[in-house]
Amino acid sequence: MKLEIGNIHVKALEFGQNTALSAGTVQIDQQELVGFIRELDHRIASVALDIARPGDKTRIMPVKDVIEPRCKVEGKGCMFPGRNPGDEAMVGEGRTHVLKGMAVVTTGKVVGFQEGIIDMSGPGAEYTPFSKTLNLVITCEVDDTCNQYDHEAILRKVGIETANLIGQLAKTATADDSRTYETKPLLEQAAQYPNLPKVGYVYMLQSQGLLHDTYLYGVDVKTILPTLLYPTEVMDGAIMSGNCVSACDKNPSIVHQNSPVIHELYEHHGTKYNFMGVIVTNENVTLADKERSSNYVAKLAVQMGLDAVIISEEGFGNPDADLVMNCRKLEDAGIKTVLLTDEYAGQNGESQSLADSTPKGDAVVTNGNANQVVHLPAMDKVIGHDTYANVIAGGWDGSLHADGSITAEIQVITGSTNELGYHNLTSIAG
Amino acid sequence: MTIKIVHYINQFFGQKGGEEAANLPIELVNGPVGPGAALQGLLAGKGEIVKTIICGDSYFNENEGVACMGIREILEEIKPDLLVAGPAFNAGRYGMACGKVGEVAHGLGIATISGMYNENPGYELYKNYSYMVPTSNSAAGMRQALPAMAALITAWAEKEGKLGTPEEEGYMPRGLRVNVFSEERGAKRAVNMLISKLAGESFKTEYEMPVFDRVEPQPPVLDLSKATIALVTSGGVVPKGNPDRIESSSASKFGEYSIAGLQTLTCESHETAHGGYDPVACNQDPNRVLPVDVLRDMEREGKIGKLHDLYYSTVGNGTSVANAKAYGHAIAMHLLNAGVSAAILTST
User: Fold this and answer.
1) Are A166 and A26 in contact (CB under 8 A)?
2) To the nearest whole number, what is the mean pLDDT of chain B?
3) Are residues B229 and B157 in the same domain?
4) Which residues, numbered 172 to 211 in chain B, qualify as contacts with chain A under a Cβ-Cβ cut-off of 8 Å?
5) Is B321's Cβ below 8 Å from some Cβ in A?
6) Total domain count, chain B
7) Based on the domain organization, do B11 and B110 belong to the same domain?
8) Domain limits at A299?
9) pLDDT above 90 as % of chain A
10) A146 is catalytic
11) Separation between Cα atoms, residue A75 and residue A93, nearest integer Å
12) Cβ contact B193–A338 (<8 Å)
């Protein structure tokens, strides 16, 4: 598969008379967009739109998803395929346009305990990659006929459909920069660089239930067996987030769209190694599923003739077992591994960090200790509801202070310890 | 800028005497004393020792609570930028005291720089709380220890408390994981590590895999029909409303709750506080995580002697292994004191 990504750099995001893209400015007709969103589900009770720009004294919480507007210009399929009848075409080929530098962010009353915080300025902004994007924020509430599953599904749909709608603005725009990514069918790819080691990417996806689910071509990944993807498929939304594990190491949809390990692996494809493709797998809750999926991953890696893989985890604790099983079984099969994880080392960093371990895991990249405590000063504006600071994962009773400031673990910050290596935080022995 | 330092030393280095003065209570004097004077000179204006705390080693270790309270009051009063303790070399009681005052200062948000021999028990026990430079095992190494401590103090002052790694700065590892922002993002570091590993070149893992303790299983309960069985869970089942506000992740506590006379749990009586798994099935029927209903059946059928009146619950989600171990220890003591024969642990 060969995919050309054309980036249109968004320099300004504003509300205005009509929805349009002109000279790097995205303008949104607020009334029209609110109408579009309300039509998505009759159980939506209210919709409000805001714009949050880098440097604003603005806090967004509880954040559910962050999505990058994109659209298909050439080639089959649509963004985030497989959700609706008729959208079953495979993606990852042709040309895709991206509104680079902006994002759609969804918020509203909490579904579970896990949703996150994005601060657009101050110390919290350093910890989240999404303080650097121009954010169109949708605050969406649902009526009381919705259970938690309905609530999550509606908010997910609102975010994805809005991003897809705005992404259409890029369709006829001229890209500011373009890059082509290509991975060939297995036999051809192997033949292209016969003297280079073959590497793959084992892409672990959360699949533990409400707010812990991920979708592959619209399919809940807890129901899949591990399978193969061309790396370019994710750039067209083959993987969609439905999960907020804890906000720090949840992968919002934008992280899958820009999947960092895939992009970094392409950098040395054909020079240092031969990047053969991606194995997606799940992190189910039962031991039998964990054993089956990790056995299957090792089998596929051998079947592909891989010499080495990068394995990325999503979440912590229970999925540490999946990470360790994948590592151990791949190393036992003679395939070298590098692991991407984060740590829960306690608020002072004094504890061991993982819930499972293997001596085979000798190459680990850590994306930081999620238990570290941070003080987030009060902001001039809160989009959403800050009262949840006391209950979201990483907060405690008393996290929200009377002046609007918050003291909590960085676990509460969306993307702070992202385990796909999207951000720069790490931990060292000190 | 000159930082304000309080220096902690023992009776010997405080020039009060040897073992015969080891019971000396805390004494606070102005300015530097003994090694402090040499240290002050080495700091070349970067730091000023405003007060010196002198305390007998035996006094400190035999009256630790009182001594710590006194030192806390002194630190609260003077509000130094930094506490310096020792160097203690391989003197066990002195090392323990230097380590402990570091813990006291840590509790007040004050950093401590110390120095001791790497086998001093004060290092192993209190390394989390202080930056300790390695010294030789006896005071003969004073001439090497003081410049090393002065260099670390100077670095601490110049970097406004943000010291680099143990290797860079010359202190012994504190056994802590410290967050820093890296120049390159994680994905790029992973690819670089992969390239090194493939080429057979040396690379440095960013996290050494932990080694876990193993718990020896207890002997089996021989007669369940006479046993008192307790329920303990990390699945976060709490009375509705979560009265102790157990956190949804990184729990700071566990709860003890009565189920005396309760035949079953319901969605009206109990819920989960856990933020790390799909809570719907548990909230519909909390017995799915804390099986009170089945244990009551077994109690009625005489299969078990009795279900313990209290159950213990915490949230396993994002809770560090060190905290989990401490809660487990405390819960076990409660169960032991209550004469419980065995416990069923449910996790999620």
Assistant:
1) yes
2) 95
3) no
4) 173-191, 193-195, 197-198, 203, 205-211
5) yes
6) 2
7) yes
8) 2-412
9) 95
10) no
11) 6
12) yes
